[in-house]
Amino acid sequence: MTEEGSLEKDAPAGRRGWVSWTLFLGIGIAIVSLVLLMLRPSSISADAAITIHSYNNGQLEWHIVDYPATVLAGNTFQLKLTDAAGAPVEGAQLDIKLEMIGMVCGDFDFSLGETAPGIYSGEGVPLMPGLWKASLTIIGDGDSVITRTLKAVY
């Protein structure tokens, strides 16, 4: 009878300990999840539809038409390239690589063609919704690389 009495007394204390550890573990997981959520790349805000950038020999105006970009569709990237004096840069070779931030696959590369003096246009296709990095390479200008972020949605 002594053993049975001690088992009955220990059971509530054992449950209290289990509940305390479960509560402690749950709070810990919630805190870690919140911190990771705040640090994940998609929590970074995307750039605006039009951004202005300086590069080695001038200035670049980068415009994504119909922003935010649409997933699995051709999105028009229009760039205006000027030299240090503000004159249009003609005959440039421009390539863009789209990379989803935090992913190791699913990149999309494309080239832009000149549609008017200093105006270049091309179609980029983000493959998933979320935050993307677009890296522009200006070939022949010491291969300048200019990056910006963009948001893609369905």
What are the key terms here?
single chain, about 150 residues, alpha+beta, Immunoglobulin-like, 2 domains, 9 strands, about 25% helix, about 45% strand
SSE layout and pairings?
Layout: H1 2-39, E1 50-55, E2 58-64, E3 69-70, E4 75-83, E5 93-100, E6 108-116, E7 119-124, E8 130-139, E9 144-153
Parallel strand pairs: 3-9
Antiparallel strand pairs: 1-2, 2-4, 4-7, 5-6, 5-8, 6-7, 8-9
InterPro entries: FixH
Transmembrane segments: 18-39
Keywords: Membrane, Transmembrane, Transmembrane helix
CATH topology (fold) name of the largest domain: Immunoglobulin-like
CATH homologous superfamily grouping of the largest domain:
Macroglobulin (MG2) domain
Q: What's the rounded overall pLDDT mean?
A: 86
Count the helices. How many?
1
Can you write the helix and strand succession as a string? HEEEEEEEEE
Helix residue percentage: 10-25%
Gyration radius over CA: 27 Å
Text of the CATH class of the largest domain: Mainly Beta
| Counted beta strands | 9
CATH architecture of the largest domain: Sandwich
Alpha-beta classification:
alpha+beta
Largest sheet: 9 strands, mixed
Sequence stretches where pLDDT stays below 50 over 5 or more residues? none
Euclidean distance between termini CA atoms: 69 Å
